[in-house]
TrEMBL record:
Annotated GO MF terms: oxidoreductase activity
Protein name per the record: Enoyl-(Acyl carrier protein) reductase
Keyword Cell membrane annotated: no
Stored InterPro entries: NAD(P)-bd_dom_sf, SDR_fam
Presence of keyword Oxidoreductase: yes
Record keywords: Oxidoreductase
Length: 254
């Protein structure tokens, strides 16, 4: 597409996860080119196979962001792509481990924050300035899970980390205003319904695609942005128009 027009891209961090998979699907459904970042393995291979007929999907399997070094390397790679970046969706986190806080060594909480909170901060520190270079309103959307407001019995480490991520989203929302980037968290207050848990899932549990659609809907929301937006099934419907119906893409360089 050298010398032509490149639609801006949406970056999905944690694309190999359940919610990340849904965000990728929702973005493609809405007409957005997608760069999916995830750890190389069976889940990324499944993502590639599922969307094999989607030319707008690019995969990056160099690993996940863990610290500032990883985030800086990602930004360097993005700059080489020379495709405008419109949005980042961050669905990062590790599997919860059971056990009472009082029964486990304090180091376990430190490790949980290191895995679930620090990567979000590292990614935001390096990607927000890149998004700020856009000529249009850019979005940085974090996906937050349940139990951030009330403790999850037997999974206290996960609740503390989720609550800390929620506060991080609010701080980033305030600080990113000076950059002209909208930072918001989509708070999903129920577990995700998957084929693996379908027999035990409650009716109010959303699918990964529904969560993805709700997250993507924030890109075209014209209301004053709130730092925390709760998942709403009304926002999880298939899109009525593409993301670029009212967006003038930048010209490609080179």
């Amino acid at each position: 597409m050298s010398g032509g027009i490149l639609h801006p891209e949406s970056l999905v961090l944690g694309a190999s996860g359940t919610v990340g998979f849904g965000v990728v699907g929702a973005l493609l459904e809405a007409g957005s080119p997608v760069l999916a970042l995830g750890r190389d393995g069976p889940r990324m291979q499944a993502l590639a196979q599922h969307f094999a007929e989607e030319p707008a999907l690019s995969l990056m399997t160099s690993g996940c962001i863990q610290d500032d070094r990883d985030a800086a390397a990602l930004v360097a790679t993005l700059r080489k792509r020379k495709r405008p970046l419109r949005a980042v969706f961050a669905s990062l986190g590790s599997a919860p481990e059971s056990g009472r806080l009082l029964d486990r060594p304090s180091r376990l909480l430190s490790d949980k924050l290191e895995r679930d909170l620090i990567p979000h901060l590292a990614a935001a520190r390096h990607l927000l300035p890149l998004l700020a270079e856009s000529n249009e309103t850019a979005h940085y959307i974090l996906i937050g899970g349940p139990h951030a407001e009330r403790g999850w019995a037997g999974y206290g480490h996960a609740s503390v980390a989720a609550s800390a991520l929620r506060m991080l989203a609010q701080v980033l929302h305030e600080e990113a205003q000076a950059l002209g980037v909208r930072v918001q968290m989509l708070s999903v207050d129920h577990p995700i319904s998957t084929p693996a848990n379908a027999c035990n899932a409650c009716a109010e549990w959303p699918s990964a695609l529904a969560v993805g659609r709700c997250a993507v809907s924030l890109l075209s929301c014209h209301e004053a942005p709130k730092p925390i937006v709760r998942y709403n099934a009304a926002r999880a419907q298939p899109p009525l128009s593409t993301l670029f119906s009212d967006y003038t893409p930048a010209s490609a360089h080179g």
